[in-house]
Amino acid sequence: MPIIDANMMTPPLSHQDMQTIAFAVWCLARREPEIGRSAVAWSIRNRMVSHGRGEPGSAGRICTEMLQAVAEPPVSISREPGLLGVRAYWRAYGVACLVWCDDIADPTGGANRFHRHDQVPAWAAEERPVALLGSYFFYYEPFRRSPVPPSPLPPNELPRPPIAL
Fold it and tell me: Quick one: DSSP state of residue 85?
């Protein structure tokens, strides 16, 4: 059983992962107020937990998916050296670090998907947003690996939980 250290980030990240997340936050929320930047960063973190399970490399995959789905026009992950002098990039990097250290509360309530408020992608047509922060609607999408297998017992023969007296 692994030892849980209260000082460890969840999910754990490499420096390269943090740069990737900061780039995604910068692309998606550089014109947003701080709550909008933190909401985007939290949504990325929540998606990594729900869909990436904190696996190495999941930051790049998840950020790429979000950038291609949300950014106008779609953007690919880049670690452009020219960003090092851009204040908005460092704000995005700082917010991403604060989110991963739990120093900013999650304003999205666990959302792991989002879209611009002036667009409605097909996946969101029947969904109910959990928050509107900055320019984005945020949603919680449960992760389902595969359909739940059917129960081996008919519904009327399912075991009953014990009754507490």
Answer: G
| Contacting residues for 68 by C-beta, under 8 A, at least 6 apart | 74, 75, 76
User: Which domain, by its residues, includes 38?
Assistant: 15-105
Q: What is the pLDDT of residues 96-147, one digit of tens each?
A: 999 998 999 999 999 999 999 998 888 888 889 999 999 999 998 875 444 4
Amino acid symbol at 146 = S
- Global pTM reads 0.75
Q: Per residue in 127-150, is it b (16+ CB within 10 Å) or e — as a string?
A: eebbbebbbbbbbbeeeeeeeeee
The residues pairing with 116 across neighbouring beta strands, listed in sequence order, are 136
Q: What is the CATH number of the domain that holds 68?
A: 1.10.10
Decide if 125 is inside a domain. no
